[in-house]
Amino acid sequence: MAHTAPLISYCDGGGDSYAYIAGIAISNQCNPVIFLDGDKNNPNKVEKVKKKYDQIPIIYLTQTEFEEILPRGIYFQSLKKITKENSIDLTAFEVWVQDQAKSEDRQKKSIPDRAFTKQLEAWLAESHKDIIYQKAEVMNEAVKLVDVKDIDTTKLLELVQVIDSLFKELYGTR
Length: 174
Known about the structure:
Blueprint: H1 18-27, E1 34-36, H2 43-52, E2 58-60, H3 72-83, H4 90-100, H5 106-109, H6 116-127, H7 135-145, H8 153-171
Parallel strand pairs: 1-2
């Protein structure tokens, strides 16, 4: 990865605007690569991007979100710190998610199958209506709080391998 870092510019797609930003990159003669985590793996949106920009590689962090490489306790500690809301509690969140599976409401019943941050957004909307959830801010704080040994590096290593092989494919071997 050390040999690729100087050649790469990073741009946050800001949620679902990754196709727009990729288009800007292409118009500036760049070779964008789109990285999507688990909550962005919407087949319809991805297919539209592939049709419009078939030359752009799309790399998935499968079955997870970047937020999930950190322990949930740390993520909740960060959420509590950022929002200054002491009633935010990981156990209450986990119980709430499990309870949604028993709901008669289809939307609620689907919550346990959603990505972690989508579950969290739904819980906050129901239980903490006054909180504005800023994912990037919470993640930034969580990264500051976490001990490196507690990070789940499995997905990160997988991502590094995919990036490295893509770099070799695009630019040849080092």
